[in-house]
Specification:
This protein is α+β, with helices and mostly antiparallel strands and 92 residues long. The protein has one domain: Double Stranded RNA Binding Domain (2-Layer Sandwich), CATH 3.30.160. The chain contains two helices and four strands.
């Protein structure tokens, strides 16, 4: 394995008051040519891809699903989200 490349991914949510949450994505090429991307802040969030772009796209989608699931299950509270600088704004 070579030294992993670090990519900062910014997930923006909200409308008028958009905040950003930064997650680190480590991307590396395996000896067999597959690419692997993982988010260290979210244990277990890693994906393989045929190329760097695919691995990055897949891990970003998985990270969003994990955060949404944790929020839905109550593992992350509204207060946790506010403390992290994230706000949601929905129009009815």
């Amino acid at each position: 394995m070579t030294h992993p490349a670090i990519t900062n991914v910014v997930a923006k949510v909200g409308t008028a008051h958009t905040s950003a949450v930064r997650l680190t994505v480590e991307v590396d090429c395996e000896e067999d040519g597959r690419w692997i991307a993982e988010v260290p802040e979210l244990p277990g969030v890693m994906c393989y891809g045929r190329d760097r772009a695919e691995a990055l796209r897949l891990v970003q989608a998985l990270a969003l699903r994990v955060v949404a699931d944790r929020f839905e299950q109550g593992e992350i509270s509204d207060a946790d989200m506010r403390d992290a600088g994230v706000s949601f704004s929905f129009a009815a």
